[in-house]
Design brief:
Helix content is 28%, strand content 24%. The chain has 190 residues and is of the alpha/beta class. It has a seven-stranded parallel sheet with strand order 4-5-3-2-8-9-10, with helices on both faces. It has a two-stranded parallel ribbon with strand order 1-11. It has a two-stranded antiparallel ribbon with strand order 6-7. Helix 3 runs parallel beside helix 4 and helix 4 runs parallel beside helix 5. The longest helix is centred in the middle third of the chain and has 12 residues. The protein starts with a strand and ends with a strand. This is protein-glutamate methylesterase. Keywords: Chemotaxis, Hydrolase. It holds the Pfam family CheB_methylest.
Length: 190
């Protein structure tokens, strides 16, 4: 069974997230026609290196987001260190130095909330492993606006706090293992 493509995908991860992202990003179809925006909690005081790490491992082009950068179908943008990544409108992202959320900047909640405001029911939110409750309010926003949320099974997560917190706070459309998540991503068809 095929699933229609979302208009945009947002992914949040923290502790254990690099390995989880490595598995998930490899599963996107090569001609995925929606932008993919990623927040991985990273230290504020040094380069992230995430785009370089995933370049060549992901079938899609990857880059670190810049302020006012266009949202391009089939491109993965990572939040840079010390900036929140926000969806400004259907065609542009912005970077913000607003206060950290639960001690994190970049944080997951601002990305998910801004994307939910813009894309509504066309948004797919994916929350992975992590050691804080960042992402819970964002998951609630995505679901409130009619979007779809898949959350990594806390029993599988390297750090179960973040997925468990989001499930308890806002629920999920699906609680998935990384293997199931990859299967679901592979089911998208134009």
């Amino acid at each position: 069974m095929s699933t229609p493509f979302p208009q945009a995908v947002v992914i949040g991860a923290s502790a254990g997230g690099v390995q989880a992202l490595r598995e998930v990003l490899r599963c996107f179809p090569a001609r995925f026609p929606a932008p993919v925006l990623v927040v991985q909690h990273i230290p504020r005081d040094r380069p992230s290196g995430l785009a370089a790490l995933f370049d060549g491992e992901c079938p899609l082009p990857v880059a670190e987001a810049e302020d006012k950068e266009p949202l391009c179908p089939g491109v993965v943008l990572f939040a840079p260190p010390d900036y929140h990544l926000l969806v400004e409108d259907r065609s542009t992202v912005s970077l913000s130095r607003d206060e950290p959320v639960l001690y994190s900047r970049p944080a997951i909640d601002p990305l998910f909330e801004s994307a939910a405001d813009v894309f509504g029911a066309g948004l797919l939110g994916i929350l992975l492993t992590g050691a804080s409750s960042d992402g819970s309010a964002g998951v609630a926003a995505v679901r409130r606006e009619g979007g779809t949320v898949w959350i990594q099974d806390p029993d599988e997560a390297v750090s179960p706090v973040m997925p468990a917190s989001a499930i308890a706070f806002a629920g999920a459309d699906a609680i998935v293992t990384l293997r199931d998540l990859c299967r679901r991503l592979g089911s998208f068809t134009p």
